[in-house]
Structure formats: structure tokens, C-alpha cells
Amino acid sequence: KLSTFLFYRRLVRGTYTPMFRHALWFGIAFVLLYTLTVSIFTLTVCIPMHAFWDVVNPKYDASNAKCQSKTTQIVVARLDVVTDVYALVLPASLLWQLQMNKRQRVGLLVVFSL
After folding, report:
1. Which residues form the Rhodopsin domain (predicted)?
2. How far apart are CA 100 and CA 104, in angstroms?
């Protein structure tokens, strides 16, 4: 996602509004912080770490393992979806303002969506 935001920055260099620039930098900062947080979370989701995978093994004694709740994992997954949608909506807001017919605009939106 970070590379996508940096691509957007490069693509519209010199043509974007200050509001778009702030939204773009917000996206870059959010993705960086999100990546750092998820990396730390992934390493500490269960103590000891191997319990995260071994807990589904019926022979594994999980009494020593301390794992975070599934709710925390769901929040992380939802934030991932939010960053995906943000990365999609950001260029769509620019494309919608272009001076071209509706069919070409929709085609560009489809290309960016892919």
C-alpha cells in the first residue's frame, strides 16, 4: 500500500491540490504506523510465539500459552480493509474531477480498482 501511495504522489506531482497532498501524506503515515503496529502485534499475539500455530493442534498443551483475544485480531483485519478502501478512494476523487466523458472516467476507475 505504501508503494501505491508513493506511486500516486509521483503520478500527480505538481497537479494536485493541497487537500489531496495532505490526504496522501495522511495515507502514507497511517500505512507506516499500521505496518509497524501489525508487525509488533504479529510477534506478540501469543507468548510463546509458536503457540499461535500450535493452539490448533489437539496434542498441544495450551495451558502455558497466553494469546490475545480474537477481537484484537478482528480490529487489525478491519484496519487493513480501511487502508485498502482509502487507497482506492484517494485516486477516485481525483479522477472524478477530470474533464472527460463518463465512460472514460469509469474505465479509469476500473483500472485503478484492479
Report:
1. 1-114
2. 7
pLDDT at 17: 81
Model pTM?
0.72
CA distances from 100 to 8, 12, 107 (A): 20, 17, 11
Task: Name the DSSP class of 48.
Answer: S
Q: What are phi and psi of 55, to 5 degrees?
A: -65, -25
Mean pLDDT of successive 10-residue segments in the chain (114 residues)?
88 81 92 89 80 78 78 82 88 78 83 77
Cα–Cα distance, 7 to 23 (Å, whole number): 14
Q: Which amino acid is at 45?
A: V
Q: Which of 68, 71, 16 is nearest to 47 (CA)?
A: 68
